């Protein structure tokens, strides 16, 4: 297993390629521009297609088209750019097409900052565009995990015919870590599975493949929505991913995702040395959210409170409260304005909570 | 004579780390040092993040306009002229990664050309653990590209091969083999091998050809790029 030193953005791009992605459509925006930059050099080497679209709206509609042919396709942007893509994402979800959308979150709202942020949790998990739909949302906490989740993201998208979003933050994309890359997958579109793919009619295709999100007839739209909702229930039942850390004997259970979870872990490790046990539930899928797992951890014997830590004003906090269901005290510690919390700050917060528990 | 060190290289090769190490070494020797952050590419993890540390050595730091203000369109400050106009013992340029970053140097072509012979050293910092720098061919190709963009011939390689916090002697050994081949192929000498003191010592004890090691230079790590190593300077 050869280790290589990679920047998150390069690693994400290379991992997508190795997962069979051969189409990338995007538009530059800090802090993820190295993803399209890397793709622009790499795609021609492997016979793939890199195209810098005229805008984020253009890019997501190119994704829509390519996904309709059954190909593995990726787009990538950062918060304001992902807002622009929302109409297209809703169309892709309605058309039941697999694709992967990367959001390297920066500070918001508005143009915000170019430093790391986590303010797009609501947008990613609650449906950023119009209509009743869900994206499967993965949130890696390291460069290695971002690599590992890329193939999971493409597989999940294909499995459920549903768009998948990977949310990282500026730090994950900009930091360099020693990583192991997976082998190049020999991915070929299997049209006997992807019977819906618009790959030309041919003699073997009894029906035309039509990619559509417009349903004039209300009964037809009902049917689409029922099918979508049924898919979401299956995803909720099968695709929850999370990491449990140091829950044994924990007095407080923290919740955090992405890089903030790593900072929280540092605080937990420091406290452990002082003989204080704090646990962590780190959702790896933000949707479906690990409601049950968090609930069980929060009400376990000895646990006196839950602390949610985020780089926003408390967005995942709402899901944490739903999970805890009023059965445990829930506190919040967050920064916004892209101002990363330090382990010391989280430690102080945990110690101050402890005094009143 | 004024010593001017220009650090170019693939991004992630360790230019900023070396810029700090060269600067602090010179400052400790009582030299008057100016350090220039000429990275017009990266907005994260840059030399200016360590401004307080640099200033504590009484080193003059020149940074791009709008640096660390969340503005992406950095521009070169007029203050860069002080590197050539004022009387420094050592001037160090930390340049952005890749040919794109090296382009910033082109603007100062005439100023570099006016330096006395032997004053300028353009160092190509190499970390063969980086994906675009893993073979001698890639290294030479990237170097020639950077030379064209910067309008400066490279004086020598720096073998700074490492895996950040997981760095080990094998990294240096692999870097040595690849850089040696790149050196033979290009005719560009290896001027430095840099690493953490313990790794460097172990590597040197293996008896490799000194011609492809250059000056061994133990370095300290000031730029952290992961969450396990928060410092009071920040990330």
What does this 3D model show about the protein?
The complex is a heterodimer of chains A (about 350) and B (about 240). Chain A has about 350 residues and is α/β, with parallel strands linked by helices. Chain A folds into two domains: about 5-195 and about 230-235, Rossmann fold (3-Layer(aba) Sandwich), CATH 3.40.50; about 245-355, Rossmann fold. Chain A is about 40% helix and about 20% strand. Chain A has a seven-stranded mixed β-sheet, with helices on both faces. Chain A has a five-stranded mixed β-sheet with strand order 9-11-10-13-14, with helices on both faces. Chain A has a two-stranded antiparallel sheet with strand order 1-8. The longest helix of chain A has 21 residues, at about 220-240. The model of chain A has no long low-confidence stretch (mean pLDDT about 95). Chain B is of the alpha/beta class and about 240 residues long. Chain B has a single domain (about 5-230), classed as Rossmann fold (3-Layer(aba) Sandwich). Helices cover about 35% and strands about 20% of the residues of chain B. In chain B, helix 7 links the parallel strand 6 (about 155-160) and strand 7. In chain B, helix 4 (about 100-105) packs parallel to helix 6, helix 6 (about 135-150) packs across helix 7 and helix 7 packs across helix 8 (about 195-205). Chain B is globular and about 45 Å long.
Largest sheet of chain B: 8 strands, parallel
According to CATH, the homologous superfamily of chain B is P-loop containing nucleotide triphosphate hydrolases
- Biggest sheet layout of chain A: 7 strands, mixed
- Which CATH-level-2 architecture of the largest domain in chain A? 3-Layer(aba) Sandwich
Q: Which architecture name of chain B does CATH use?
A: 3-Layer(aba) Sandwich
CATH first level of the largest domain in chain A:
Alpha Beta
Based on helices, strands and strand pairing, what is the structural class of chain A? alpha/beta
CATH class of chain B: Alpha Beta
* Number of alpha- plus pi-helical segments of chain A: 12
| Average pLDDT of chain A | 95
Mean pLDDT of chain B: 92
H/E order of the elements of chain A? EHEHEHEHEHEHEHEHEEHEEHEHEH
Beta strand % of chain A: 15-25%
The CATH homologous superfamily name of the largest domain in chain A equals Thiamin diphosphate (ThDP)-binding fold, Pyr/PP domains
Number of domains of chain A: 2
